[in-house]
């Protein structure tokens, strides 16, 4: 396929649409089938996008909230790996879209629609296998999103750039250091942000124009015109040896044969007055996950969850307020620099730089510091937990001490290089053997 075979009038035709936000003519398609194996036992029973974050949310809620807040009212979510908890969350928290308002929300598990012996083979295949569903809605634009990153972004601004530039694909990009770029797909661009080449995890990444140490890394966010995307997915599906992946196959092909343009995240990042810099995190390791959650306890965190102009939508359980009880020396319910969700009871225990999800119970004479406790954890009396991530529903026994003896911690729990210990109920059960 040559450049001349790519449609040349997409931007002109788009401008003839009734003057409304481009997002109203777009569908967001969230790729949420990732295993997230680097999160270790946190993804033993759930996909990475379903992992809890920030006290009330799941990771996927950020991409979905960005789409909703941007004005997109058609959303599809492709699921695959250990999807039950993710699907249950989506059904409970994202079921308010109404077809009579031209809205839709589709959960799209790998269902062998194309072949009876094929699940989703790659990110591009996860869209290709559902083209018939997409075409039924007839969106003019497709916004392809990864469902496993933490950030706030107005996709309308990226759509506008896509139309104005006449691009075949617009790629969301982060500015990162040259050292960091070795772990990303990196764009080599010219002064007009046209992508000249795309390389995956290069040892010597190309830098941005005018900079010797800054690179543009792909965020896994793409904007296409739907008709063009369908053509490319069908072409790739017929290509022997393709891995059916956007980053490995679709995007490099368009860079070579068409027009790919980079969109800088800094141009569409949503920030409140409290957020000093564009915020984006891949919480793909236990260390990164703990750090990003605990950063929220800072006096002025990098991510403002209190911004009412850009809310993070999620499923919220009906719970009573958090409760702190007992006020005597050595047995005082208190919290310093902590986030405590609804339904929690801190009974004669102390928290310092801790994030408690819904329904956590911490009993008397216990202390919890630098800790992320997922929903319905129960900490028995006289426990001391430092530098921990505790999985949902774990029952911490009386007097358990974690975070003070590295060798003992490593023998009993999943201890990371930073000293953070991941604790699951299976690990606690083994202590009794």
CATH-defined superfamily of the largest domain: Spore Coat Polysaccharide Biosynthesis Protein SpsA, Chain A
- Number of DSSP strands? 28
- What's the overall geometry? globular
* Classification by helices and strands: alpha/beta
Proportion in helices:
10-25%
Number of domains: 2
Task: Tell me the CATH topology of the largest domain.
Answer: Spore Coat Polysaccharide Biosynthesis Protein SpsA, Chain A
What CATH architecture of the largest domain do you see? Alpha-Beta Complex
- As residue ranges, the low-confidence spans are 1-18
Fraction in beta strands = 25-35%
Average pLDDT reading: 92
Sheet of most strands: 9 strands, mixed
Q: What is the CA-CA span between the terminal residues? A: 64 Å
What's the CATH C level of the largest domain? Answer: Alpha Beta
Global Rg: 23 Å
- Total helices: the number is 12
Structural features, described:
- The protein is an alpha/beta fold and about 425 residues long.
- It has two domains: about 20-295, Alpha-Beta Complex (Spore Coat Polysaccharide Biosynthesis Protein SpsA, Chain A); about 325-430, Hexapeptide repeat proteins (UDP N-Acetylglucosamine Acyltransferase, domain 1).
- The chain has helices spanning about 10-15, 60-70, 85-95, 125-130, 130-135, 155-165, 180, 225-235, 245-255, 285-295, 405-410, 425-430; strands at about 25-30, 50-55, 55-60, 75-80, 105-110, 140-145, 150, 170-175, 185-190, 195-200, 215-225, 260-265, 280, 325, 325-330, 330, 335, 340, 345, 350-355, 360, 365-375, 380, 385-390, 395, 400, 415, 420-425.
- β27 (about 415) and β28 form a beta hairpin.
- The protein starts with 9 loop residues before the first helix and ends with a helix.
């Amino acid at each position: 396929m040559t450049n001349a075979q790519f449609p040349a009038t997409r931007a002109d035709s788009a401008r003839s649409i009734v003057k409304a936000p481009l997002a109203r003519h777009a569908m967001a398609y969230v790729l949420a089938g990732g295993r997230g194996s680097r999160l270790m036992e946190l993804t033993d029973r759930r996909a990475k996008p379903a992992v809890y974050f920030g006290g009330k949310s799941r990771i996927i809620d950020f991409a979905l909230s960005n789409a909703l807040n941007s004005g997109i009212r058609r959303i599809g979510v492709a699921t695959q790996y250990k999807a039950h908890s993710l699907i249950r969350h989506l059904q409970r928290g994202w079921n308010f879209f109404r077809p009579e308002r031209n809205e839709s929300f589709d959960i799209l598990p790998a269902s062998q629609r194309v072949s009876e012996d094929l699940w989703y083979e790659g990110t591009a295949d996860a869209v290709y296998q559902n083209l018939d569903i997409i075409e039924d809605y007839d969106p003019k634009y497709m916004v392809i999103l990864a469902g496993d990153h933490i950030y706030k972004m107005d996709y309308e601004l990226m759509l506008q750039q896509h139309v104005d530039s006449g691009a075949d694909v617009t790629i969301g990009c982060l500015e990162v250091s040259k050292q960091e770029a070795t772990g990303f797909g990196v764009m080599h661009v010219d002064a007009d942000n046209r992508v000249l080449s795309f390389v995956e995890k290069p040892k010597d990444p190309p830098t941005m124009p005018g900079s010797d140490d800054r690179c543009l890394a792909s965020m896994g966010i793409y904007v296409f015109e739907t008709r063009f995307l369908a053509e490319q997915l069908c072409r790739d599906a017929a290509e022997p040896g393709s891995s059916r992946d956007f980053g490995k196959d679709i995007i490099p092909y368009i860079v070579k044969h068409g027009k790919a343009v980079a969109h800088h995240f800094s141009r569409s990042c949503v920030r409140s007055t409290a957020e000093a810099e564009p915020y984006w995190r891949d919480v793909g390791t236990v260390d990164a996950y703990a750090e990003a959650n605990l950063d929220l306890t800072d006096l002025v965190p990098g991510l403002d969850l209190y911004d009412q102009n850009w809310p993070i939508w999620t499923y919220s359980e009906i719970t009573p307020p958090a409760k702190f009880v007992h006020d005597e020396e050595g047995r005082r319910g208190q919290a310093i620099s902590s986030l405590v969700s609804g339904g929690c009871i801190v009974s004669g225990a102390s928290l310092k730089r801790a994030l408690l999800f819904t329904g956590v119970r911490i009993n008397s004479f216990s202390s919890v510091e630098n800790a992320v406790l997922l929903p319905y954890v129960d900490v028995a009396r006289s426990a001391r937990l430092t530098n921990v991530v505790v999985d949902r529903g774990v029952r911490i026994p009386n007097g358990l001490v974690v975070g003070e003896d590295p060798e003992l911690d490593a023998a009993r729990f999943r201890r990371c290089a930073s000293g953070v210990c991941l604790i699951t109920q299976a690990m606690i059960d083994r202590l009794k053997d």
